[in-house]
Amino acid sequence: MSISSKVQQGMVQGSWIRKMFEEGAALKRQFGEQNVFDLSIGNPIMEPPPRFREELRKLAEHPLPGMHRYMENAGYVETRAAVATQLSLESGLKFTANEIVMTCGAAGALNVVLKTILNPGDEVIIFAPYFPEYINYIENHAGTVRILPTNEQFAPRLGVLEEAINARTKAVLINSPNNPSGVVYSDDLLRSLGKLLEKKCAELGTAIFLINDEPYRKIVYDGRQCPLIWSHYQWSMVVTSHSKDLALPGERIGYLAVHPECPQRSDLISGCIYCNRILGYVNAPALMQHIVRHLQAVTVPVSEYQRKRDFLYTHLTGMGYSMRKPEGTFYMFPASPVADDIAFIRELQQWRVLAVPGSGFGSPGYFRISYCVDDRTLEGSLAGFRKVAEKLKSG
Amino acid sequence: MSISSKVQQGMVQGSWIRKMFEEGAALKRQFGEQNVFDLSIGNPIMEPPPRFREELRKLAEHPLPGMHRYMENAGYVETRAAVATQLSLESGLKFTANEIVMTCGAAGALNVVLKTILNPGDEVIIFAPYFPEYINYIENHAGTVRILPTNEQFAPRLGVLEEAINARTKAVLINSPNNPSGVVYSDDLLRSLGKLLEKKCAELGTAIFLINDEPYRKIVYDGRQCPLIWSHYQWSMVVTSHSKDLALPGERIGYLAVHPECPQRSDLISGCIYCNRILGYVNAPALMQHIVRHLQAVTVPVSEYQRKRDFLYTHLTGMGYSMRKPEGTFYMFPASPVADDIAFIRELQQWRVLAVPGSGFGSPGYFRISYCVDDRTLEGSLAGFRKVAEKLKSG
């Protein structure tokens, strides 16, 4: 075979999100797009905010000289400074451009961070349910994945975490607001997590990074502010993107940020800049860097997502589905009415409703719904959810 | 230390291009930008062609619905089809969208290809002088680099290549038009290379890929057409970008193409699409995909680069510098007047002229000049080149 065994194996196993996408495409061809209710993908239906359009028009009409050339691998200093200003505002800490590297999305940022910190065999802890690409990203850089369970509220169990941490633990990777559960970690939880990691670093004489993947930081509901890791732990980093808050997932524009008081942060940032280069990303796309520089305080109308959440939450719980009410993101993660979440998803598919089984996120017995879709799709999905609930109740 | 040993080591060794960049920045601060003649970086001074501006303006004024959303990991089918049409025109073969994956630049394309084909320890052969990032890219994916010498014309020595190929050889990576030498491989050379690889595949019972990294395919001089690998070998792939032909290096837009008659090409392409995703690139930037779809037949005015080449070639050879006349790219690679190319570069720096020692490309005794700069810089550099030539002659 001409391709790598590991890649071949990964492709055969596939990902559930991808499988649902492909089966959905087949259903759409068979029944017509409007008769399939696809809640499987986190591809926001919203267009970027009007301010984005304005900045794009300005640059198209009055191009800056050299605005498509290479810049420093870290990104434009003006863009990094704008990100730093926003993070300082949100956190009360003093970020500067020196703590920021612009990246090709949050996926680029996370790969850069992992390449920078991992020696072969170093362990990275994640919590189920998890975004499934984390496993690929950690293994890209010869790291070892440790998957830990969460409690019934989808929060890390700190006792389990404490036991799992050992001398090879290089990082704990969290994702709050969380895909797929929609949970936002509380300030108390983050404080306890920070304290635990401090204690383990001291005990083991190692540095354990806390990395929050937070592309949904601004997509939080009911008047919430998203609690931040910055005030609770110095060895911390954030990887994120403007895929969700500015609805730009196809443009691959994001950044990584290092705690301004992180020990050895200068080496860490230099390492990240170097890895941004040698991983072949080279730099975040130039035009998008010019634009998002002006949009750090801008967000898509989150109330729209909240309205969609409320609609679906009310209807599904009314049908007997059980779930924790999402506090952010545009996902919900109800319990499957039967233990076998894959069988449940297959039933839903009979009604042309597409969702992703919890098994795809390391949490069998649940399923994920993406509600970043138009209202017609949400409304259209209700009949299928009702039929399946009734069938399973009576069965 | 909190960062990976390998990354730390890589950063200490640094790259010569990077070193020159940093020392150049220091010189510019000291003497003023206009008094430093920086020929060290391949960052084209040209702006993108007017047709690019038009397409950008159109999309800014009349956005397509959903034009910034995720698309298939392979890229928009319309963009891939446009690339295929252009490649079919150039090669006489029948490319379709199915042989093309849009990528984050040529660097992204090459990393995707290497991740897709390499098992740990598989060997990739490159030829000195080489683009130094190749070593990082091959090692990113657990490959082993084999560096082979070229002849005095900077062409691979086929006898040496034949001896070097073994059962672990997974790919031969070439770069024509060549950075740093400016050489364009002849059709005869590519034919012989194809024949040799066919013979070795048959002998060894393996598949050896021929990969051409060809971002400079359209930057060729004196009425040349760039000879293509497609007609000479089926197990072939191209990785490339629009960084040079459309002057968009900061935008990270490129693609990979697989020979339409490559055996197992469907597995190969599926693998590349999968690796585009799991390496964290996810997809090539969306807006740029929409634009370059319409620009496959458009190129920056190459005659401008040819004029700059002629200017510098005439002056430098007149001073006694010896070099092969570049046939393409925007680099030249003269012999250093003294054996120690680093000492020579240091001398040049005394005159505030920046170039990169051949040692940085695996070929000591030479130096690289980038002439994708403004005329003032080219003209200003001549005094330094003359002084150093005279000093070394008289010394």
Structure, explained:
Two copies of one chain form a homodimer. With 395 residues, chain A is an alpha/beta fold. Chain A has helices at residues 5-13, 16-31, 50-61, 77-91, 105-117, 133-140, 158-164, 187-204, 265-278, 286-292, 302-318, 341-350, 375-394; strands at 37-38, 100-103, 123-127, 144-148, 169-174, 209-213, 236-241, 254-258, 331-332, 353-354, 356-357, 367-370. A seven-stranded mixed sheet of chain A has the order 2-8-7-6-5-3-4, with helices on both faces.
Blueprint of the fold:
Two copies of one chain form a homodimer.
Chain A: H1 5-13, H2 16-31, E1 37-38, H3 50-61, H4 77-91, E2 100-103, H5 105-117, E3 123-127, H6 133-140, E4 144-148, H7 158-164, E5 169-174, H8 187-204, E6 209-213, E7 236-241, E8 254-258, H9 265-278, H10 286-292, H11 302-318, E9 331-332, H12 341-350, E10 353-354, E11 356-357, E12 367-370, H13 375-394
Parallel strand pairs in A: 1-10, 3-4, 3-5, 5-6, 6-7
Antiparallel strand pairs in A: 2-8, 7-8, 9-12, 11-12
Helix pairs in contact in A: 3-10, 5-9, 11-13
Order of helices and strands of chain A: HHEHHEHEHEHEHEEEHHHEHEEEH
Summing up helix and strand content along with how strands pair, one would put the structural category of chain A as: alpha/beta
The largest contact between protein chains, plus residue counts on each side, is: A-B, 74 and 74 residues
Give the number of helices of chain A. 13
Mean pLDDT value of chain A:
96
Q: Any idea what the radius of gyration of chain A is?
A: 21 Å
- Biggest β-sheet: strands ordered side by side in the sheet of chain A: 2-8-7-6-5-3-4
Strand composition percent of chain A:
5-15%
Tell me, what's the shape of chain A? Answer: globular
> Biggest sheet of chain A, in brief?
7 strands, mixed
